[in-house]
Amino acid sequence: MPRFLLLIVILGIAVIIYALFDCIMSRGNAVRSISKPAWILTILLVPLLGAGLWFLFGRPRQDGNSVKRRNTPRRPSAPDDDAQFLRNLEVKRRQEAREAELRRKEAELRAKEDKKKKNDDGGTATDGKTA
C-alpha cells in the first residue's frame, strides 16, 4: 500500500511539473482563458487542480489554427473587398462589351451585303444613270 501511495504522489508531482513547464514554454499570446502569469500562479498555488485546469482550459490548441491565422494575410470577407475579384469583373465586362461591338458590326456588314445582293439581283441601277 505505501508503494502505491508513493507512486500516486510521484505521478502527481510529475503532472504538476509538466504542467508548469508546459505553461512556461508556451507563447503568452497563445494561452487561453487567463494570462500566462495567472496560469503559473494557479498551477503553483492549487497544484493538482491548477494543473488539470491548465490542461483543460489554458493550454494552447494543437490544431495550429491560431498560428495559421496570425501568419497568413487576412482574406477579404466579401467579394467586393477582393481586388482580384474586382479586376476579373472589369476584364469580363470589357470582353463582353467587345463581343457585343463585334456582333453589332457583323450585323451591319451582313445587312450591307444583303442590300447589295438585292440591288445586284434586281437589276435596278441606283447610280443615277438611265439605260
Automatic annotation (TrEMBL):
<feature type="domain" description="Cardiolipin synthase N-terminal">
    <location>
        <begin position="15"/>
        <end position="59"/>
    </location>
</feature>
<feature type="transmembrane region" description="Helical">
    <location>
        <begin position="37"/>
        <end position="57"/>
    </location>
</feature>
<keyword id="KW-1003">Cell membrane</keyword>
<protein>
    <recommendedName>
        <fullName>Cardiolipin synthase N-terminal domain-containing protein</fullName>
    </recommendedName>
</protein>
<keyword id="KW-1133">Transmembrane helix</keyword>
<dbReference type="InterPro" id="IPR027379">
    <property type="entry name" value="CLS_N"/>
</dbReference>
<dbReference type="Pfam" id="PF13396">
    <property type="entry name" value="PLDc_N"/>
</dbReference>
<feature type="compositionally biased region" description="Basic and acidic residues">
    <location>
        <begin position="97"/>
        <end position="121"/>
    </location>
</feature>
<keyword id="KW-0472">Membrane</keyword>
<feature type="transmembrane region" description="Helical">
    <location>
        <begin position="6"/>
        <end position="25"/>
    </location>
</feature>
<dbReference type="GO" id="GO:0005886">
    <property type="term" value="C:plasma membrane"/>
</dbReference>
<feature type="region of interest" description="Disordered">
    <location>
        <begin position="97"/>
        <end position="131"/>
    </location>
</feature>
<keyword id="KW-0812">Transmembrane</keyword>
<feature type="region of interest" description="Disordered">
    <location>
        <begin position="59"/>
        <end position="85"/>
    </location>
</feature>
